Amino acid sequence: MAETILKVKDLKKYFPVKKGIIFNKRVGTIKAVDGISFNVLKGETFGLVGESGCGKSTTGRLILQLLKPTGGKIIFQDRDLTSLNFEKMRKIRQEVQMIFQDPYASLNPRRTVGEIIAEPLVIHQIGTPEERRKKVLELLEVVGLNKSFVSRYPHEFSGGQRQRIGIARALAVKPKLIVCDEPVSALDVSIQAQIINLLEELQEKFDFTYIFISHDLSVVKHISDRIAVMYLGRIVELATYSQLFENPLHPYTQALLASIPVPDPRLRKERGVLEGDVPSPFNPPPGCHFHTRCKYAKDICRRQVPGLEDQGDGHLAACLLLAKEGR
What we know:
Blueprint: E1 4-19, E2 25-41, E3 45-49, H1 56-63, E4 71-76, E5 79-80, H2 86-92, E6 96-99, H3 113-123, H4 129-142, H5 159-171, E7 177-181, H6 189-206, E8 209-214, H7 217-223, E9 226-231, E10 234-240, H8 241-246, H9 251-258, H10 299-303, E11 309-310, E12 316-317, H11 320-325
Parallel strand pairs: 3-8, 3-9, 6-7, 7-8
Antiparallel strand pairs: 1-2, 1-4, 4-5, 9-10, 10-12, 11-12
Helix pairs in contact: 3-4, 3-5, 4-5
């Protein structure tokens, strides 16, 4: 059995909502991440998917401690990251890196490509200046860029090339876990495929573990071993990619799959698409958060919060009607 590299236990992140210029009174709470738990196995790609505002990117930032959680634990190789001070967490970041969503905003426009990629090596005091320069040139080749780019600036590159630079920067310190926060959503479709292929090649070569965050199930399908589906701060389904796409159990997952475009307009979808908007995280519905948009919803769904239960073969789903009606 594969080794577990990361354990997330009952993770929560609540943001206070305040009103008033003078008194700045707290009037409520946004539960961006509301008690989620999952494990990530060494060497796998763990997909985290859902609509905008579901809490998936917040989860990624919590794992790297770019945000401090309200509650819960994040255990990376037997170390609880939530209990570490700044210096200890700084050392851990050598093993846990992030690829950001926007390749235009994540690179310092005043620094050359060489300086950007070498920055993690400088921060963690790895190698001499000459060794760092040699490492930067190697990384440019690894991600499919020309060594001559080392002295250029970010504005001289396309979006796909900038994302390759961001990937090279993440690889510089030889991390064990990389959080990919929507790494292809800002790119053209043809470039998306190139970046996905690059990530897969790098994983095979260096044995990385990925957490791949995306709103696009069709993208997640091609790279993920297991996938967790989030809705309003909670995980509603967790399964292997084959289980999820061949037998989706939660109505939300079914609707997401139905919304994936198909090349042939004559093909009809069996499942209905989502109706209505995502409720406000400031005032989410009671019980199952999805009941306001679910065509199967019953009275119990409005009262009781469903737990993430094993529906067989490790396929987890949080739906009160699965056990009651055998859907």
